[in-house]
Amino acid sequence: YAKHNPRLSVQLFESGMDERRLRSQKLAVALQLAIENDELDLAYQPIFCLKDGSIESFEALLRWNSQEHGQISPLEIIAVAEHHGLAHLLNQWVLSSACQQLRGWHRQGYEFLKININISPEIFMSGELASTVKAILQRVGLPPSSLVLEITEDTSLWDTASSVDNLHALRQLGVEIALDDFGTGYSSFSHLRQLPVNKLKIDKSFVSDLTTDQRAADLVDAIIRLADSLDMAVTAEGIELPEQRDRLQQLGCAHGQGYLLARPILSCQVADWLTKNWQVRHSAPTG
Length: 287
Ligand code: C2E
Ligand code: MG
Ligand code: MG
Ligand code: MG
What we know:
The chain is α/β, with parallel strands linked by helices.
């Protein structure tokens, strides 16, 4: 009926909006409590060197199993946080939790392990990130070189000079910057020219078509060579099939990540996973 009755469709639309707004508000209240009570969690997905199968880094991925609302996806958590003024609090929590956990793994003997942390564009814009990161690294006792910050290029925020300054401040600290979901943004080349990034992550949509679509394969090949000539290290995301991994190896892609290689691991299981996988990966190449 709504299709033919404009008044009814407006009502349905508005009540849908109300529901969404209500959920967002409830989630914001619950999220703030969850951050304060340390009820969020991080999962860690390993990033491997494709040549010898060794572990390069862990990407920290936000997880929230709310008592009241169930499992909430990281993208929804980020959206709620940004909409309700919790982005900085959340970012602080993610940064300091991940750094503390990495420090723990370093102490257990995995000193070369790095950590990748996703940072939302809003946080970069504020201009406080470099000093926040510096303070956390000092407090926790980690070298800046063990931290890789991932930013997505899919935003117009990158057109401002201040975000470029903020990135330079971070690079000066010794932190690395990766451009996440590369290839899906709208002006990749101007970003590569302006932003002081030193890593690229090829979006999983390219990887999933790699062995079935020649154009996708050609593009991945071109991205890898482009990165090479700009002295950037490349990671392919979303590797699910052995033939995708093999093709990426052939194309000379340095690093890889995906369900085929390892799923995200809950923080409490990482130490176990490391004892089972580190020796294997680091003494006997799996190629
Ligand atoms: P992302 O940074 O591009 O992370 C990769 C996403 O792909 C993760 O989803 C990961 O679980 C998933 N993934 C990994 N391997 C595979 C695979 O082989 N196949 C498929 N289909 N997916 C794979 P997740 O954990 O749901 O995170 C989604 C997005 O949420 C992330 O995309 C990132 O943009 C954002 N995010 C997650 N944690 C944080 C955080 O702490 N802060 C911020 N600002 N954003 C975060
Ligand atoms: Mg990422
Ligand atoms: Mg990505
Ligand atoms: Mg993504």
